[in-house]
Amino acid sequence: MTVTAGVPGAMVPGAARRSPLAELTQMELKLFLRERVGPIWGVGFPMLLLVIFGAIPSFRKVLPGSGGLTILDSYTPILVLMSLALLAMVAMPLTMVGYRERGVLRRLRTTPAGPARVLTAQLIVSLCMAVVTVALIIVVGRLAYGVPVPRQFGAWLVTAVFAVAALLATGMFVAAIGPTARAAGAIGNVLFYPLMFFSGLWLPIPSMPAALQHVSHATPLGAAWESFQQADLGHWPPALALVAMAAWAVAFGAGAARFFRWE
After folding, report:
1. pLDDT value for 14
2. Residue 199: strand, helix, or coil
3. pLDDT over 80 at 114, yes or no
4. How far apart are CA 141 and CA 79, in angstroms?
5. Helix, strand, coil shares of the chain as percentages rounded to 5?
6. 110, 111, 183, 208: which has the fewest Cβ within 10 Å?
7. Which of 69-73, 111-115, 118-122, 157-161 has the lowest mean pLDDT?
8. How far apart are CA 166 and CA 19, in angstroms?
9. Is 80 exceeded by the pLDDT of residue 163?
10. For the whole model, what pTM was predicted?
Protein backbone atom coordinates (compact mmCIF):
# COMPACT_ATOMS: atom_id res chain seq x y z
CA MET A 1 0.00 0.00 0.00
CA THR A 2 1.12 3.57 -0.54
CA VAL A 3 0.49 6.68 1.51
CA THR A 4 -1.42 9.18 -0.57
CA ALA A 5 -2.72 11.69 1.95
CA GLY A 6 0.26 13.00 3.86
CA VAL A 7 1.63 11.81 7.17
CA PRO A 8 -0.84 9.82 9.26
CA GLY A 9 -1.71 11.57 12.47
CA ALA A 10 -1.38 15.09 11.09
CA MET A 11 -4.02 17.29 12.73
CA VAL A 12 -6.61 18.86 10.49
CA PRO A 13 -8.59 22.11 11.02
CA GLY A 14 -11.66 21.65 13.19
CA ALA A 15 -10.40 18.38 14.67
CA ALA A 16 -8.66 19.76 17.75
CA ARG A 17 -11.14 18.13 20.10
CA ARG A 18 -10.55 14.67 18.74
CA SER A 19 -7.90 12.39 20.16
CA PRO A 20 -4.77 11.59 18.12
CA LEU A 21 -5.86 7.94 17.95
CA ALA A 22 -9.26 8.90 16.52
CA GLU A 23 -7.58 11.10 13.92
CA LEU A 24 -5.16 8.34 12.98
CA THR A 25 -7.90 5.74 12.72
CA GLN A 26 -9.97 7.97 10.45
CA MET A 27 -6.94 8.67 8.26
CA GLU A 28 -5.96 5.00 8.09
CA LEU A 29 -9.50 4.04 7.11
CA LYS A 30 -9.49 6.59 4.28
CA LEU A 31 -6.14 5.31 3.04
CA PHE A 32 -7.34 1.72 3.28
CA LEU A 33 -10.42 2.47 1.17
CA ARG A 34 -8.33 4.25 -1.47
CA GLU A 35 -6.00 1.32 -2.02
CA ARG A 36 -6.69 -1.95 -3.83
CA VAL A 37 -5.16 -4.67 -1.66
CA GLY A 38 -7.58 -4.51 1.25
CA PRO A 39 -10.92 -3.58 -0.38
CA ILE A 40 -10.53 -5.69 -3.52
CA TRP A 41 -8.71 -8.76 -2.25
CA GLY A 42 -9.68 -8.77 1.41
CA VAL A 43 -13.35 -7.88 0.89
CA GLY A 44 -14.28 -8.20 -2.78
CA PHE A 45 -12.51 -11.44 -3.70
CA PRO A 46 -14.12 -13.67 -1.02
CA MET A 47 -17.51 -12.17 -1.92
CA LEU A 48 -16.90 -12.98 -5.59
CA LEU A 49 -16.03 -16.56 -4.70
CA LEU A 50 -19.24 -16.82 -2.66
CA VAL A 51 -21.24 -15.73 -5.71
CA ILE A 52 -19.39 -18.18 -7.97
CA PHE A 53 -19.71 -21.11 -5.56
CA GLY A 54 -23.36 -20.26 -4.94
CA ALA A 55 -24.08 -20.48 -8.67
CA ILE A 56 -22.66 -24.03 -8.95
CA PRO A 57 -25.53 -26.54 -8.56
CA SER A 58 -23.29 -29.26 -7.10
CA PHE A 59 -22.39 -26.95 -4.21
CA ARG A 60 -26.02 -27.15 -3.06
CA LYS A 61 -25.78 -30.90 -2.45
CA VAL A 62 -25.71 -32.17 1.12
CA LEU A 63 -22.39 -33.66 2.17
CA PRO A 64 -22.59 -37.22 3.50
CA GLY A 65 -21.99 -37.32 7.26
CA SER A 66 -22.03 -33.53 7.56
CA GLY A 67 -25.16 -33.21 9.66
CA GLY A 68 -27.18 -31.78 6.78
CA LEU A 69 -24.64 -29.16 5.64
CA THR A 70 -24.15 -28.57 1.92
CA ILE A 71 -20.80 -28.05 0.22
CA LEU A 72 -21.50 -24.30 0.13
CA ASP A 73 -22.30 -24.32 3.84
CA SER A 74 -18.89 -25.89 4.52
CA TYR A 75 -17.10 -23.47 2.20
CA THR A 76 -18.60 -20.32 3.68
CA PRO A 77 -16.36 -20.42 6.81
CA ILE A 78 -13.36 -20.92 4.52
CA LEU A 79 -14.28 -17.72 2.64
CA VAL A 80 -14.57 -15.93 5.99
CA LEU A 81 -11.10 -17.15 6.92
CA MET A 82 -9.71 -16.17 3.53
CA SER A 83 -10.95 -12.62 4.01
CA LEU A 84 -9.51 -12.39 7.52
CA ALA A 85 -6.17 -13.80 6.38
CA LEU A 86 -5.86 -11.40 3.43
CA LEU A 87 -6.64 -8.38 5.61
CA ALA A 88 -4.34 -9.43 8.46
CA MET A 89 -1.42 -11.09 6.67
CA VAL A 90 -1.19 -9.15 3.41
CA ALA A 91 -2.89 -5.75 3.59
CA MET A 92 -1.81 -4.68 7.09
CA PRO A 93 1.88 -5.72 6.82
CA LEU A 94 2.24 -3.93 3.48
CA THR A 95 0.99 -0.71 5.05
CA MET A 96 3.10 -0.92 8.20
CA VAL A 97 6.34 -1.84 6.42
CA GLY A 98 5.66 0.86 3.82
CA TYR A 99 5.39 3.44 6.60
CA ARG A 100 8.66 2.24 8.09
CA GLU A 101 10.43 2.33 4.71
CA ARG A 102 9.37 5.92 4.07
CA GLY A 103 10.30 7.09 7.57
CA VAL A 104 6.70 7.83 8.55
CA LEU A 105 6.99 5.97 11.85
CA ARG A 106 10.24 7.75 12.66
CA ARG A 107 8.73 11.19 11.99
CA LEU A 108 5.67 10.38 14.10
CA ARG A 109 7.92 10.13 17.16
CA THR A 110 7.95 13.93 17.25
CA THR A 111 4.16 14.33 17.01
CA PRO A 112 1.39 13.84 19.59
CA ALA A 113 0.23 10.80 17.64
CA GLY A 114 3.33 8.68 18.18
CA PRO A 115 4.18 5.56 16.15
CA ALA A 116 2.47 3.19 18.59
CA ARG A 117 -0.87 4.80 17.80
CA VAL A 118 -0.34 4.06 14.11
CA LEU A 119 -0.12 0.40 14.98
CA THR A 120 -3.26 0.65 17.11
CA ALA A 121 -5.12 2.48 14.35
CA GLN A 122 -4.12 -0.20 11.84
CA LEU A 123 -5.42 -2.91 14.15
CA ILE A 124 -8.70 -1.05 14.63
CA VAL A 125 -9.20 -0.60 10.88
CA SER A 126 -8.37 -4.26 10.23
CA LEU A 127 -10.81 -5.37 12.92
CA CYS A 128 -13.58 -3.12 11.59
CA MET A 129 -13.11 -4.35 8.02
CA ALA A 130 -13.05 -7.94 9.25
CA VAL A 131 -16.39 -7.43 11.03
CA VAL A 132 -17.93 -5.83 7.95
CA THR A 133 -16.69 -8.55 5.60
CA VAL A 134 -17.78 -11.41 7.86
CA ALA A 135 -21.22 -9.84 8.24
CA LEU A 136 -21.51 -9.44 4.45
CA ILE A 137 -20.58 -13.07 3.81
CA ILE A 138 -23.10 -14.31 6.39
CA VAL A 139 -25.92 -12.05 5.19
CA VAL A 140 -25.37 -12.60 1.46
CA GLY A 141 -24.90 -16.33 1.97
CA ARG A 142 -28.13 -16.53 3.95
CA LEU A 143 -30.33 -14.31 1.77
CA ALA A 144 -29.02 -15.31 -1.65
CA TYR A 145 -28.08 -18.96 -1.23
CA GLY A 146 -29.85 -20.19 1.88
CA VAL A 147 -26.67 -20.75 3.92
CA PRO A 148 -28.00 -21.33 7.45
CA VAL A 149 -27.04 -19.08 10.33
CA PRO A 150 -24.79 -20.99 12.77
CA ARG A 151 -26.92 -22.95 15.21
CA GLN A 152 -24.53 -22.09 18.04
CA PHE A 153 -23.85 -18.44 17.21
CA GLY A 154 -22.01 -17.75 20.47
CA ALA A 155 -19.51 -20.49 19.67
CA TRP A 156 -19.17 -19.07 16.16
CA LEU A 157 -18.30 -15.63 17.56
CA VAL A 158 -15.79 -17.12 20.01
CA THR A 159 -14.10 -18.91 17.12
CA ALA A 160 -14.00 -15.70 15.09
CA VAL A 161 -12.31 -13.84 17.97
CA PHE A 162 -9.65 -16.53 18.36
CA ALA A 163 -9.07 -16.68 14.59
CA VAL A 164 -8.75 -12.90 14.28
CA ALA A 165 -6.28 -12.79 17.18
CA ALA A 166 -4.13 -15.52 15.61
CA LEU A 167 -4.15 -13.93 12.15
CA LEU A 168 -3.48 -10.38 13.35
CA ALA A 169 -0.54 -11.67 15.41
CA THR A 170 0.78 -13.42 12.30
CA GLY A 171 0.35 -10.25 10.26
CA MET A 172 2.24 -8.20 12.83
CA PHE A 173 5.03 -10.78 12.78
CA VAL A 174 5.24 -10.41 8.99
CA ALA A 175 5.41 -6.63 9.42
CA ALA A 176 8.12 -7.05 12.06
CA ILE A 177 10.48 -9.23 10.02
CA GLY A 178 9.80 -7.80 6.54
CA PRO A 179 12.67 -5.45 5.65
CA THR A 180 10.75 -3.90 2.75
CA ALA A 181 7.12 -3.75 1.64
CA ARG A 182 7.89 -6.08 -1.26
CA ALA A 183 9.56 -8.58 1.06
CA ALA A 184 6.66 -8.35 3.53
CA GLY A 185 4.23 -9.05 0.70
CA ALA A 186 6.26 -12.10 -0.33
CA ILE A 187 6.45 -13.41 3.24
CA GLY A 188 2.73 -12.87 3.72
CA ASN A 189 1.93 -14.81 0.56
CA VAL A 190 4.30 -17.63 1.51
CA LEU A 191 2.33 -18.03 4.74
CA PHE A 192 -1.09 -17.34 3.23
CA TYR A 193 -1.27 -20.10 0.62
CA PRO A 194 -0.20 -23.05 2.82
CA LEU A 195 -2.54 -21.86 5.58
CA MET A 196 -5.41 -21.64 3.09
CA PHE A 197 -4.60 -25.16 1.90
CA PHE A 198 -4.89 -26.43 5.47
CA SER A 199 -8.20 -24.58 5.86
CA GLY A 200 -9.66 -26.94 3.25
CA LEU A 201 -9.92 -24.47 0.35
CA TRP A 202 -8.56 -26.88 -2.28
CA LEU A 203 -9.02 -30.22 -0.51
CA PRO A 204 -11.64 -30.64 2.22
CA ILE A 205 -10.02 -31.39 5.56
CA PRO A 206 -12.02 -34.63 6.09
CA SER A 207 -10.68 -35.87 2.72
CA MET A 208 -7.04 -35.25 3.65
CA PRO A 209 -4.75 -38.09 4.72
CA ALA A 210 -4.60 -38.52 8.49
CA ALA A 211 -1.17 -36.91 8.78
CA LEU A 212 -2.31 -33.79 6.91
CA GLN A 213 -5.43 -33.58 9.03
CA HIS A 214 -3.28 -33.46 12.17
CA VAL A 215 -1.19 -30.67 10.63
CA SER A 216 -4.35 -28.83 9.61
CA HIS A 217 -5.78 -28.94 13.13
CA ALA A 218 -2.54 -27.37 14.42
CA THR A 219 -2.81 -24.36 12.08
CA PRO A 220 -5.04 -21.38 12.92
CA LEU A 221 -7.17 -21.68 9.79
CA GLY A 222 -7.62 -25.44 10.05
CA ALA A 223 -8.51 -25.17 13.73
CA ALA A 224 -10.85 -22.27 12.98
CA TRP A 225 -12.63 -24.17 10.21
CA GLU A 226 -13.17 -27.13 12.52
CA SER A 227 -14.57 -24.81 15.20
CA PHE A 228 -16.84 -23.00 12.72
CA GLN A 229 -18.11 -26.33 11.46
CA GLN A 230 -18.97 -27.43 14.99
CA ALA A 231 -20.74 -24.11 15.64
CA ASP A 232 -22.77 -24.56 12.43
CA LEU A 233 -23.91 -27.94 13.77
CA GLY A 234 -24.85 -26.46 17.15
CA HIS A 235 -21.79 -27.51 19.16
CA TRP A 236 -19.06 -25.61 20.97
CA PRO A 237 -15.54 -25.63 19.47
CA PRO A 238 -13.17 -28.42 20.51
CA ALA A 239 -10.81 -27.27 23.26
CA LEU A 240 -7.75 -28.31 21.24
CA ALA A 241 -8.82 -26.11 18.33
CA LEU A 242 -9.10 -23.06 20.59
CA VAL A 243 -5.76 -23.91 22.20
CA ALA A 244 -4.12 -24.14 18.76
CA MET A 245 -5.39 -20.70 17.74
CA ALA A 246 -4.44 -19.19 21.11
CA ALA A 247 -0.96 -20.70 20.96
CA TRP A 248 -0.48 -19.32 17.45
CA ALA A 249 -1.57 -15.86 18.61
CA VAL A 250 0.75 -15.88 21.61
CA ALA A 251 3.77 -17.24 19.72
CA PHE A 252 3.54 -14.90 16.74
CA GLY A 253 2.48 -11.96 18.92
CA ALA A 254 5.58 -12.44 21.06
CA GLY A 255 7.72 -12.73 17.94
CA ALA A 256 6.23 -9.52 16.55
CA ALA A 257 6.92 -7.66 19.80
CA ARG A 258 10.48 -8.97 19.85
CA PHE A 259 11.46 -8.09 16.28
CA PHE A 260 9.29 -5.09 15.41
CA ARG A 261 11.27 -1.99 14.41
CA TRP A 262 9.93 1.55 14.18
CA GLU A 263 12.68 2.68 11.77
Report:
1. 47
2. coil
3. no
4. 11
5. 75, 0, 25
6. 110
7. 111-115
8. 29
9. yes
10. 0.84
